[in-house]
């Protein structure tokens, strides 16, 4: 089967950074479904994994996490899907990726593709939707019953995760303050439902105060955890919660949160599949619920650009766009 892989960590401007390769077509066993890939999306995690290698390898590593496609074959323990079903999912960082003609994924982390979306529109959604959903509703414990009209600060509102988080926070009735540093990204955040826009390249507290918020009970950090740490510690309300998805090699001074009894939590969307937690099937439920919300018009796809077809050249271009740090929404590579 056709696939796109890499042998060593190279600049995306190098044509060998991602290459067209061939691999054996895998067979579905156990809880796995074999999916014929119709569209994939590139996320920051793709670029980080591509650049994480230390030595050149003999066998190519296939990247790709977000995908939408059609079930071709099911393993003997599968109960959720059958051949012909249309699915979308965010994959598993411990296994070969979705940048291939066919892909194996555990059915418990896949969902039914939204009926109202194309494969390309669907492929834009899984990883960022799961990240935002888990961060908001599981890590921070937000609910519409207790948090309606409470403010949340989303740092990095125009990216893929931010685009999903703004929409989901609005469904819970929160007042959303999103950060954006350019007029076009600010407009995108407003279009998705953000109530207030501030610039994360400027001091956050004065901007919040000007918008009428001396502090906020929730902060969802999707951009430069270490760089925003002091500001977040200053802004978070007493007994508030900060959740971040952005890793950092710098040490974070947690004692800055002590007097406020504030909490800091990480969100890593791949935790369930990496450790095969007892609740791994929860991602199947979340994706199905998100698909229903999309089909009802409550959520919208965050796709902003589609490239054709799925090959090394187009995936390199998608990596280049993500690495620029100027992506609004999501870029997808589709077969047709």
Q: Can you give me a brief rundown of this structure?
A:
The protein is α/β, with parallel strands linked by helices.
Question: Any chance you could write out the topology, listing elements then pairs?
Answer:
Blueprint: E1 2-6, E2 19-22, E3 32-41, H1 44-50, E4 61-62, E5 67-74, E6 86-89, E7 102-106, E8 110-112, H2 119-123, H3 126-139, H4 144-147, E9 151-155, H5 160-171, E10 175-179, H6 183-192, E11 196-198, H7 204-210, E12 216-221, H8 225-235, E13 236-244, E14 263-266, H9 271-275, H10 282-295, E15 303-307, H11 312-323, E16 330-334
Parallel strand pairs: 9-10, 9-12, 10-11, 12-13, 13-14, 15-16
Antiparallel strand pairs: 1-2, 1-4, 3-5, 3-7, 3-16, 5-6, 6-8
Helix pairs in contact: 3-5, 3-10
Summary keywords:
globular, 336 residues, Rossmann fold, Quinone Oxidoreductase, Chain A, domain 1, 11 helices, alpha/beta, seven-stranded mixed β-sheet, six-stranded parallel β-sheet, 2 domains
Task: Output the CATH class name of the largest domain.
Answer: Alpha Beta
Which band does the percent of strand residues land in?
15-25%
Task: Please tell me how large the radius of gyration is.
Answer: 20 Å
> What is the 3D form?
globular
CATH superfamily of the largest domain: Medium-chain alcohol dehydrogenases, catalytic domain
- CATH architecture assignment of the largest domain: Alpha-Beta Complex
End-to-end separation in angstroms reads: 18 Å
The total count of helices amounts to: 11
Tally of distinct domains: 2
Low-confidence stretches: none
InterPro entries: ADH-like_N (IPR013154), ADH_Zn_typ-1 (IPR014182), ER (IPR020843), GroES-like_sf (IPR011032), Lipid_raft_assoc_Zn_ADH (IPR052585), NAD(P)-bd_dom_sf (IPR036291)
Domain Enoyl reductase (ER): 13-333
Pfam families: ADH_N, ADH_zinc_N_2
Protein name: Zinc-type alcohol dehydrogenase-like protein
């Amino acid at each position: 089967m056709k696939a796109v892989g890499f042998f060593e960590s190279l600049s995306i401007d190098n044509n060998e950074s991602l290459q067209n390769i061939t691999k054996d077509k895998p067979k579905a066993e156990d809880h796995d479904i074999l999916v014929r890939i119709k569209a994939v999306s590139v996320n920051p995690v793709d670029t980080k994994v591509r650049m994480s290698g230390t030595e050149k390898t003999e066998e190519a590593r296939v990247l790709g996490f977000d995908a939408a496609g059609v079930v071709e074959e099911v393993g003997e323990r599968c109960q959720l899907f059958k051949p012909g079903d249309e699915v979308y999912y965010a994959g598993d960082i411990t296994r070969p990726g979705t940048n291939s003609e066919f892909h194996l994924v555990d059915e418990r982390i896949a969902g039914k593709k939204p009926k109202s979306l194309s494969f390309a529109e669907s492929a834009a959604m899984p990883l960022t939707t799961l990240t935002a959903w888990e961060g908001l509703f599981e890590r921070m414990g937000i609910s519409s019953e207790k948090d309606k009209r409470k403010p949340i600060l989303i740092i990095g509102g125009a990216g893929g995760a931010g685009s999903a988080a703004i929409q989901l926070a609005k469904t819970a009735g929160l007042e959303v303050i999103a950060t954006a540093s350019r007029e076009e990204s600010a407009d995108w955040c407003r279009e998705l439902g953000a109530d207030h826009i501030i610039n994360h390249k400027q001091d956050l507290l004065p901007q919040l105060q000007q918008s009428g918020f001396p502090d906020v009970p929730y902060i969802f950090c999707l951009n430069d955890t270490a760089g925003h740490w002091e500001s977040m510690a200053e802004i978070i309300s007493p007994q508030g919660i900060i959740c971040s998805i952005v890793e950092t090699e710098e040490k974070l001074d947690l004692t800055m949160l002590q007097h406020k009894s504030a909490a800091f939590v990480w969100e890593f969307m791949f935790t369930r599949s990496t450790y095969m937690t007892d609740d791994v099937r929860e991602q199947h439920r979340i994706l199905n619920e998100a698909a229903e919300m999309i089909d009802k018009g409550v959520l919208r796809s965050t796709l902003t650009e589609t490239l054709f077809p799925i090959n090394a050249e187009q995936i390199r271009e998608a990596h280049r766009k993500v690495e620029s740090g100027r992506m609004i929404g999501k870029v997808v590579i589709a077969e047709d």
